[in-house]
Amino acid sequence: MADRSAIEWTEATWNPVTGCSKVSPGCAHCYAETFAERWRGVPGHPYEQGFDLRLWPERLEQPLHWRRPRMIFVNSMSDLFHEHIPAEFVAEVFDVMVRAEHHTFQILTKRHERLVELAPDLPWPENVWMGVSIENRRFVCRADFVREVPAAVRFISAEPLLGPLEELDLDGIDWLIAGGESGPRHRPIREEWLLDLRDRCRAEDVSFFFKQWGGARPKAGGRLLHGRTWDEMPRREERQPAPA
Q1: What is the DSSP string of 85-153?
Q2: How many Å apart are CA 27 and CA 30, to the nearest integer?
Q3: What angle do CA 128, 193, 141 make, to 5 degrees?
Q4: Where are the domains of the chain?
Q5: Is 54 helix (H, G, I), strand (E, B) or coil?
Q6: Which among 13, 107, 15 is positioned nearest to 53, based on CA atoms?
Q7: Nearest residue to 101 (alpha-carbon basis) of 64, 155, 130
Q8: Which residues 6+ apart lie within 8 Å of 26 measured at CB?
Q9: How confident is the model at residue 2, as a pLDDT?
């Protein structure tokens, strides 16, 4: 059975790797780290090692056993392009995604340089979407890197959005997710930052998804922006169930 997800823009998660390390301000209050560290030292728990990086070869073929087509967020508890994940293991993950053609896989990274380094040696089937996280203007260059990747859908996650992204170039981008930070130490988000992104997405025919305002709890601030929800998704072809 797939790991169902509470993340609004996906349906399930698949974690052939867990654990990560911080690379930019968006990582400061990482929800995955907070969750994993709760279990550090608990014998037999999947997060007995806390948020230390761990490969799970035994999980690689999980999506092949999920017959119903679904949207799958790859490594919600890690970053597939982390510098300590062997390139050979990344290739194995991609091999499974090629074989599990009835699913749509969403990959998100902050390691834009390693993404571009490995991309030429990876297959890019139609069912693999590739995204980068951009939390403030300092990291808008990540969009330039994902543009170099021959993915069917390229997307940006501006969550947690920590500042305006006036210099973000949306050329070649199919989808933008925006949202505020949640948790007891959440940093504020401003409506004008979101409206600027929404308006530019509408002008440039980029699908716009507003995930949340954030707050002390993930859903504390709700999801309405100017009185409505924004749940746009990039177009995708209908996929058939896997053979029985």
Answers
A1: S-HHHHHHHHHHHHH-TTSEEEEEES-HHHHHHHGGGS---TTEEEEEE--SGGGTTHHHHHTTS--SE
A2: 5
A3: 50
A4: 3-212
A5: strand
A6: 15
A7: 64
A8: 110, 133, 135, 136, 159, 160, 162
A9: 67
Is the link from the previous residue into 160 a cis peptide, with omega within 30 of 0?
yes
Token readout for 239 is: 């996929």
Q: Which residue(s) pair with 153 in the sheet?
A: 129
Tens digit of pLDDT at every position of the chain (244 positions): 568 888 999 999 999 999 999 999 999 999 999 999 999 999 999 999 999 999 999 999 999 999 999 999 999 999 999 999 999 999 999 999 999 999 999 999 999 999 999 999 999 999 999 999 999 999 999 999 999 999 999 999 999 999 999 999 999 999 999 999 999 999 999 999 999 999 999 999 999 999 999 999 888 899 999 999 999 999 766 678 887 7
Q: Does domain 3-212 have CATH number 3.80.30?
A: yes
**Tokens 């949202």 belong to residue:** 179
Tokens, residue 177: 């997710």
Residue listed under structure tokens 């969403």: 106
